[in-house]
């Protein structure tokens, strides 16, 4: 297996050095960069595209959650924090793991084992294109609630004013991005633009019904009903060889 590229975003130089010392014992992880704050961390992640991110939660000006919100695609994330209250909260974000400072060497090794297992499960799913893959995850913050959502688990995207509603499991939070922005990043084999307002995951289509004026109507597995515009209905039929 190739080395796993990693980045550290942490405001404390001492904590960054501690993580680098711990990483020396794990030759399968290659550190590609470090940053002391969110803005520099954002540029680092955009340029280096690490597979793994060690992220401090409580940083001045912007916190770790705000960094995740800025990213189109979120790496495998291990939160590092001195505050136990944040550690518990991080599970709501679907982080792979969290490490309490000062970081215990054995506890760190367990976290790295989780990373390795997750990477092996994903397989060779890397791409030079800046498009999301089914295994990619995005960060959504709606009010005080936050999620790291795997692209393959999203049923439907829907315009709501300046926001886009994202449907997955029993959740439907709002994402502050336009549908066009999202569509440009989605894997085209999985997602289909049904009309001006909605994009569907074709793997969650439960039923396709002929509708008025040559249109089609979809019933999604979560019960949502989506009407495909006439123009898109022709494309849909061709895509699925109807």
UniProtKB/TrEMBL annotation:
InterPro entries: CheY-like_superfamily, LytR-like, LytTR_DNA-bd_dom, Sig_transdc_resp-reg_receiver. The keyword DNA damage does not apply. Residues 5-116 form the Response regulatory domain. Pfam families: LytTR (PF04397), Response_reg (PF00072). It comes from the Bacteria. Residues 138-242 form the HTH LytTR-type domain. The modification 4-aspartylphosphate is found at residue 56. Keywords: DNA-binding, Phosphoprotein. One of its GO terms (molecular function) is DNA binding. This is LytTR family DNA-binding domain-containing protein.
